[in-house]
Design brief:
The protein is an alpha+beta fold. Among the domains are: 98-216, Uridine Diphospho-n-acetylenolpyruvylglucosamine Reductase, domain 3, CATH 3.30.465; 220-420, Alpha-Beta Plaits (2-Layer Sandwich), CATH 3.30.70.2190. The protein is 37% helix and 20% strand. The chain has helices at 3-14, 26-29, 49-61, 116-125, 142-148, 155-158, 161-164, 194-197, 231-245, 257-266, 292-309, 321-332, 334-341, 356-370, 399-420, 436-442, 445-458, 473-476; strands spanning 19-20, 40-44, 66-69, 87-91, 98-102, 107-111, 128-129, 165-172, 177-180, 205-213, 215-216, 220-228, 249-256, 280-288, 314-317, 344-345, 348-350, 375-381, 386-392. Strands 12, 13, 14, 15, 16, 17, 18 and 19 form an eight-stranded antiparallel beta sheet that branches. A hairpin with a 4-residue loop joins strand 5 (98-102) and strand 6. Helix 10 packs across helix 13 (334-341) and helix 14 packs across helix 15. The longest helix has 22 residues, at 399-420. The two termini are 13 Å apart. The structure holds flavin-adenine dinucleotide (FAD), (2S)-2-hydroxypentanedioic acid and zinc ion. Residues 32, 67-75, 78-79, 92, 112, 134-136, 140-141, 143-145, 147-148, 150-152, 201-202, 206-207, 335, 428-429, 432, 465, 468 line the site of flavin-adenine dinucleotide.
């Protein structure tokens, strides 16, 4: 069967308008960081789980690899095709239905292509909180959040996407549909299959729907923004926030002075408190279930104690929701300000909170010694020990050339430091293809073999997002065929029905 015949078949499954092969496909082929561009055989957009299953079966029969894609906001080159022109990007963005709210069970069942912000807003309208929140929420999807086990700014209280998921519907690498959407909080009947697919980055199957946990909406959500003299002080403030706010602490983000300086530089309309005067700032959130007055009193007591302890030099508590949104918008604008500043080297690392100040002091010094002039865009989810320890090229240098010549050495230095502090080289963004080789150096051979065994068992033809997370091409021996000319290529004949 030729690729053209496969595409004709896929047109009968999803409709010709949803098999894209021409025109500007960069929205699906270019990674968010604008650093890696792939080339798809086609972008295929199914509208239902059954259509996803038919697309997968047809691709498996033709031995054509599949790259599941949601909002394409991933940071590790995991959702875009490789450059061979032989892979099908399977976009879930047409599957956006919120299938069911179950208030008594405190769950919602939603399709993979639903944008995170849409789900947040629908849950709030229904009187509930779906507490996953990240700066990409306007375009990332629930399927991608599950594919990457996304973190975001509320992990400190509610955990990663994994902790928020009670059930999945998945199209397997064989094109079968596993429906596990019951939404039970307790179900000890064999292996917990959902946890295999969550965080598997599209390499084991296609998530088509999920049943997720809901929480009661807090009575009041308050935001404070504090100037802190050092990272040690930020860690001390985190400890005080836990002690004063307990489960009310639903966000704790640290922002370095240079990171905030980029926001001031690129978004001149934004007022960024304390940026010029403080080495670090922290934005933190208190979600209260009693009353706003109770929440405010708690915040004031916390900030008083922090000032007495000397770990906060100045602070504001938002007076309104609008002001709170503005303070959070500063934090969420850092990745975009970075992108405006130019290409940068991202390190999404996690380390025990207690070690973070020493790690940063040592690694900053080592980087400056080895790469004089590099600028550190250091910020992130301090509440979960997760820093975005990003490196910007020295001022007035060609960022492209700098990255080409220095990125590997900078990664090596930073990740060696992460290892020294027993940390992780990927806290929340995943591995994709960007960190696949690095994973080999940072994971034990036993762990890597277990991952390969799982991959081979669930995706024996290595067609689900091959080359992401763990490379099984050689071992499985049936790497997807890569043909020079995808339109006339002859694909191996297989008599799989689809
Ligand atoms: P995509 O990028 O489309 O895909 C991501 C991965 O999931 C790929 O491997 C893909 O194959 C797989 N996948 C997608 N859909 C499915 C599916 N239905 N079934 C199986 N696999 C699937 N991430 C965080 O964790 N925390 C943050 O705070 C955060 N902040 C960000 C801020 C900005 C400005 C940006 C641009 C990104 C940020 N990210 C963050 C990264 C990214 O938004 C997350 O990884 C997000 O979960 C990706 O969702 P997506 O729908 O864009 O997925
Ligand atoms: C965030 C974005 C990734 C980056 O905003 O929390 O995950 O480093 C990050 O730009
Ligand atoms: Zn993040």
């Amino acid at each position: 069967m030729t690729a053209a015949q496969l595409l004709d078949h896929l047109r009968t499954v999803v409709g010709a308008a949803h098999v894209l092969t021409e025109g500007d496909l960069s929205a699906w082929e270019l990674d968010w960081r604008k650093r890696v561009r792939g080339r798809a055989l086609a972008v295929v957009r199914p509208a239902s789980t059954e259509q996803v299953a038919q697309v997968v079966r047809a691709c498996v029969a033709a031995r054509v690899a599949i790259v599941p894609q949601g909002g394409n906001t991933g940071m590790v080159v995991g959702s875009t095709p490789d450059a061979s022109g032989t892979q099908v990007v399977l976009s879930l963005t047409r599957m956006q239905q919120i299938r069911k709210f179950d208030p008594a069970n405190l769950t919602v069942t939603v399709e993979a292509g639903c944008v995170l912000q849409t789900l947040q807003e629908a849950c709030e309208q229904a009187g509930f909180l779906f507490p996953l929140s990240l700066a990409a929420e306007g375009s990332c999807t629930i399927g991608g959040n599950l594919g990457t086990n996304a973190g975001g700014t509320q992990v400190v209280r509610y955990g990663n996407t994994r902790e928020l998921c009670l059930g999945l519907e998945v199209v397997t690498a064989q094109g079968e549909i596993w429906s596990g959407l019951a939404g039970l909080r307790k179900d000890n009947t064999g292996y917990d299959l959902r946890h295999l697919f969550i965080g598997s980055e599209g390499t084991l199957g296609v998530i088509t729907a999920a049943t997720l946990k809901l929480y009661p909406l807090p009575v009041s959500t308050l935001t404070a923004y504090a100037a802190v003299p050092s990272l040690e002080a930020a860690v001390q403030l985190l400890g005080l926030a836990h002690a004063h706010l307990h489960a009310g602490l639903t966000g704790f983000e640290v922002m370095g002075q240079f990171a905030l300086g980029l926001v001031v530089k690129h978004f001149a309309h934004m007022r960024v408190p304390f940026q010029a005067s403080s080495p670090y700032c922290v934005v933190l959130e208190n979600s209260d279930h009693h009353s706003e007055a109770h929440g405010r009193t708690q915040f004031e007591a916390l900030l008083e104690a922090a000032m007495e302890a000397g770990c906060v030099s100045d602070a504001v508590v938002a007076e309104s929701t609008a002001q709170a949104r503005q303070l959070w918008h500063i934090r969420e604008s850092i990745p975009l300000a970075q992108a405006q500043e130019g290409l940068n080297i991202k390190h999404d690392i996690s380390i025990a909170v207690s070690h973070i100040p020493a790690f940063v002091a040592e690694t900053d010094a080592a980087l400056q010694q080895a790469f004089p002039g590099v600028r550190m865009v250091n910020y992130g989810h301090l509440g979960d020990g997760n820093l975005h320890y990003n490196v910007q090229a020295p001022a007035n240098t060609d960022a492209e050339v700098f990255l080409q010549t220095q990125e590997d050495a900078i990664n090596a230095l930073v990740y060696a430091q992460v290892d020294r502090y027993d940390g992780s080289i990927s806290a929340e963004h995943g591995i994709g293809s960007l960190k696949r080789e690095k994973l080999l150096a940072h994971k034990s051979p036993v762990a890597l073999d277990l991952m390969r065994s799982i991959k081979r068992a669930l995706d024996p033809h290595n067609l689900m997002n091959p080359g992401r997370v763990i490379d099984c091409s050689s071992a499985s021996g049936s790497a997807p065929t890569t043909h020079p000319n995808p339109t006339t290529q002859v694909l191996p004949h297989h008599d799989h029905p689809y």
